[in-house]
Structures are given as structure tokens and as C-alpha cells.
Amino acid sequence: MQPQVETVKKTKRALSLAQNIVRDIEAGAHSPGDRLPHEDEMLARYEVARATLREALRFLELQGVIHLQLGRGGGPVVARPQTGDFANSLSLILHFMEADLRGLLELREAIAPDVAAYAALRATTGDLSALADCFKELERNEADNSFEELNRRFHDLLGWASGNPLFGLLTSTMHLLTREFSNSLGYSAQERAVQLRFLRSVLESVRTGDQAAARQAMSRLVSGSASYLAERSPELVSQRVKWGQI
Q: Alpha helices of the chain — where are they, by DSSP H?
């Protein structure tokens, strides 16, 4: 058998095993921090070669499903994939697709208004409290270097307040992908004031459950922000997403 064909088969076996391990983690109701069986037990259970098991575990570690604890008594420990794991994988794909910041800004313009509208429909008391607290911090730090990070945090909270985890995941992921770009530019004092005005409108619309007003305020905010970035630094929005920047 050709070496390349054998390598492909080994990879498929390792991926299939990784999927079985995930199913067993779910079936066993394992929580983050729980230890999985030691290597010899897993070899007997799954009836695979040691190399296949180790490749499957390395794959799961890269995806954030487990982490491999070193040293005596170590081994695979259950974790939970985080937004950063997804963002890192996506950035690798976008790297080869030669996607740029402009594409991410356009995606944000497309979904952010609906995210705000769903938040107006579904935000819980806890969501509203967190959004209000974050907005107060934004106002207090309008002239501070932390403004951009607090701004991203507000949008992240809004994404998760939509009641749809996909919106939350995409919103947080886009912020991780664009953080380096935005940190290198920053907002002027005038733009920060504009951002605060629209965010105040979004917050009030979400608080009162006014979906149309929340959608409109967010639409004006993100379109204005994209125009501001394009006008102030056209070379920045043309920069491509690079894997490893997160």
C-alpha cells in the first residue's frame, strides 16, 4: 500500500476515534476538569493502536475538547471548547481564503442589527443588568485606552443576550479576529461620542423590548463605524486576516 494512502487511513481512524471519545464524554455527563481513563484503559476500550489514540487525543486538544496533563498521574482531562478555539480555526481558513478586514466589517453590518433586535426580544434581567453595567463603564472610560475593549465587551454581551448562541459565538469571534486591527487604529474623541450615543439608544431599545428601534440604532452604528474606519485608514481595512494574530 502506498504511504500516502496509509497515512490518510490512519488519519480517518484517528478522527473517527476522536468522535467516539466525544460521544462517550457526553454520554458520561463529564464536566470540565474530569479525568478520562488512562491510556491503557482507552486502548482496551476502543481497540485501536497507541499511535491512533494519541493522534485522536492531540486532535481533541487542538479543538479545546480536552487538555493533556503532563507528569505522573497525568492524561486527558475534559475541557470545553471556547470562542478562542473557534476563532483560531476560523482565522486559519480565512488566512487561506485571503479574507480582509473589510469582509469582517461587512459581515458585522449584516448581522449586528438583527442581533440587537433579538436581544430586545429575548434579553433576560441578568443580560440587561450586565449591559447597563458595561455601558456605565464605557461612559466612565470614554477617554481611556480601555474604551475599545469595553466597546467590544458590550457588543459581546448583546450577542449572547440575543438568546441564540450562534449570534453570541459569531459576535465574540469577529471581535477576536478584528482586535489587532482596531487596536492599531483606535477611535477619535468625536467617534467615541458618536458610538456612545448610538449604544445608549441600543441599550434603551433592548431594555424596552423595541426590536425595530434596536435594529435601526445598531444598523446606523455599525455602518457609521465601518465608514469611519474606511475613510480614516483605507489601507487598514484592506489588510488580510492572518492566522496566529489572536
A: 3-27, 39-46, 50-62, 83-97, 101-122, 125-140, 147-161, 165-185, 189-208, 211-232, 234-237
